Amino acid sequence: MNKKTIRCRSCGRQVSASARHCPRCGTVLKMPASGIFVLIFLAFIIIGFAIVIIFKL
Ligand SMILES: [Zn+2]
């Protein structure tokens, strides 16, 4: 088993590399790349709807 750990940048605790939040202080340790792409995709959809609504009024 590969048990990689990373250090929490907020409290310094060693946390499992697969953990998204520090179990002690709750700091978000990393944003998955796929999550960023989903956010960008949603932003484009929202902007697209906004443009359609504005130009139809
Ligand atoms: Zn922490």
How do the helices and strands line up, and which of them pair or pack?
Layout: E1 5-7, E2 14-16, H1 33-56
Antiparallel strand pairs: 1-2
This protein binds zinc ion.
Account of the protein in words:
The protein is α+β, with helices and mostly antiparallel strands. It is elongated, with a radius of gyration of 19 Å. Strands 1-2 form a two-stranded antiparallel ribbon. The longest helix is centred in the last third of the chain and has 24 residues, at 33-56. It has one helix at residues 33-56; strands spanning 5-7, 14-16. The chain has one domain. Helices cover 42% and strands 11% of the residues. The model has no long low-confidence stretch (mean pLDDT 88). It contains one helix and two strands, in the order E-E-H. The protein binds zinc ion.
- The stretches of 5 or more residues where confidence is low (pLDDT under 50) are none
Number of helices: 1
Summarize the amount of helix as a percent range: 40-55%
Main sheet: strand order:
1-2
- Beta strand %: 5-15%
Summing up helix and strand content along with how strands pair, one would put the structural category as alpha+beta
Total domains: 1
The helix/strand order is: EEH
Overall geometry comes to elongated
Global mean pLDDT: 88
List all distinct small molecules, including ions and cofactors, that are bound in this structure: zinc ion
Characterize the biggest β-sheet. Answer: 2 strands, antiparallel
Indicate the radius of gyration in whole angstroms. Answer: 19 Å
Number of strands: 2
What is the first-to-last residue Cα distance?
59 Å
